[in-house]
Amino acid sequence: MDQQAIFLTVRLATLTTLILLAISIPLGYWLAFGRARWKPLVEAAVALPLVLPPTVLGFYLLVLMGPRTAAGRAVSVVFGHPLAFSFAGLVVGSVLFSLPFAVQPMTSGFRSVDREILEAAELLSPGRGRILVRVLLPLIRPFLLTAAVLAFTHTVGEFGVVLMIGGNIPGVTRTLSISIYDQVQDFAYTQANHTALLLLGLSFLALLIIYGRRGRAGV
Amino acid sequence: MFRRGRLLVLIVAALQVCFYLHAQENGTLKIAAAADLQPVLPALIAEFEQQSHQKVEASYASSATLATQILNGGPFDLFLSADLSFPQKVVAAGLADSAEPLPYARGTLVLWARNDSPVQPLSIESLRSSALRTVAVANAEHAPYGRAAKAAIAKLGLADALKGKLVVAENIAQTAQYADSGNADAGLISLTSALTPRLSADGKYVAMPEDSYPPLLQGAVVIKGGPAAEEAHQFLTFLLSPPIRKQLAERGLKAP
């Protein structure tokens, strides 16, 4: 089995999940409680990766964020290299690609909180930040877990974007899904089967954790 | 509600029948073509269709991808590989109607870079340049041009100079895309890609020394028992005819 690809994929998925949680907590809060008129615009934008083929994202990352556009050159200055063929590029791609998988559970979590509890909390302990950390987040812990697991597993399962912008560099951009693809191309069906079985098992386990907890929490 | 549901089922079923009949009647010749043919084949197919009134559809991918698909029952009548080893696999699996792949062309590996690339003016020595940050190559395991690139890099003693600079594309068409989009500073691509109007306008190429890689002999096999096997043989004859040979040569594929 391609151990380098396993480590790389775990590193990519962990980093992506952390970034997505940092984004999805405030964004989910705002989507649940915000009252802006243009909220549907943001909701639609967040959900886009659910419906768009990964090739659309891959195409724009490669061409629009490539060295031939101003935006792409700005990105090159920030990272010191173009997005394509780099780990940073995969992280950016994964965060965009898995965004709805983290944001949508968080939004439903915040929406599920009883208004009365929220009002009581506002009376007792002023400050939105404190309410968020002390009251809201503990209340919606199952949703937080769902968001984290889905973001992680969806990143592990990413293929199209990586194939388009990765460049298949061992230890940098050759993720497990690419590794399996290569093994199938090379007629190494036994190896492909081992890697695929590992992914199948882990993914099933991850989903089992979510549904198992949901069952007990009654969410 | 129930009636509407039944109507919907009826419409869906009718559509399925239409699609099925359509697929049955036209007897399309389905070609699995190596990615280096992507810039060349569409024009030839159009010409063949006009001559023979035979409908042709081509699918492009790396030779290994296509071989995998054919070995697993992919619905093709003709396999145009970019080497001999992948069609030999199809022969070995008993899926070809000949004992040997038929060589139909010879490919050329070139080094290509955009006009605004840091390695211009381009020469083989550019591959040793420190200004060069990334070179796109095709996957050596499943794209014949990638195998040729790997051999050339070893033969020309470039392995150390290129260490950490290679980015690997899935097939030779994607390799050209990486270089043309500027994401890679240069690419080891097929002459067929380098000669397209787009890449001719965007950059320049130098051919890799012919003795630096094993000849890129491209082989074809007709799939045994395919619905359009006869048409596949017709297409092969067409492909090997002198006027088409000449066109192929102009577009980057020499006679085998």
CATH architecture of the largest domain in chain B: 3-Layer(aba) Sandwich
* Average pLDDT, all residues of chain B: 90
Low-confidence blocks of residues of chain A: none
Stretches of chain B where pLDDT is under 50 for at least 5 consecutive residues are none
Based on CA atoms alone, the radius of gyration of chain B comes out at 21 Å
Rg of chain A to the nearest angstrom? Answer: 20 Å
CATH level-3 fold name of chain A: MetI-like fold
Strand content of chain A: under 5%
Instruction: Please name the CATH topology of the largest domain in chain B.
Output: D-Maltodextrin-Binding Protein, domain 2
Largest sheet of chain A: none
Strand order of the largest sheet of chain B: 2-1-3-10-4-11
What keywords describe this structure?
heterodimer, A: 219 residues, mainly alpha, MetI-like fold, globular, B: 256 residues, alpha/beta, D-Maltodextrin-Binding Protein, domain 2, 2 domains, six-stranded mixed β-sheet, five-stranded mixed β-sheet
